[in-house]
Amino acid sequence: MQQALLLADKAEAEGEIPVGAVLVSPTGEVLGEGWNRSIVLSDPTAHAEIQAIRMAGSALQNYRLIDCTLYVTLEPCTMCAGAILHSRIGRLVFGASDYKTGAIGSRFHLFEDYKMNHFLEIRGGVMADLCSAKISAFFKKRREQKKQLKLIDIR
Questions:
Q1: Which of 47, 92, 117, 125 is the most buried (most CB within 10 A)?
Q2: pTM of whole model > 0.85?
Q3: Which residues are known catalytic residues?
Q4: 13 in helix, strand or coil?
Q5: Rounded CA gap, 145 and 65, in Å?
């Protein structure tokens, strides 16, 4: 999760929501990394998890990431949860819960559907305070910047 937090800093440096993801093999080898890049790439699918999954699939030359573990600083959204499902990742570890768009239990419960054709181990709340604080600080700073811009426009 430490590495995912460092990647979240890269996202923030690019003006993106600070989310980072690391996908590792069963032996602990880093197969893929990612950070949010939706704004920079003008791509709504360029979430940290998707970036890491794409890199890992390319590294393994396989779209199945069986028994791999994905570490991500924020609970995945429905799009990312779908990619996790289709790639057959074996384990998901996330930091902060996302009560607006989280698909792993906070807002939606995608993997609790007994009709799913893939089940994975899920562990949430890992380093949650740090992950949550990073995102909260980002949005606080963004709100302050917007407030300052409004003040300038008024003058």
A1: 47
A2: yes
A3: 49
A4: helix
A5: 40
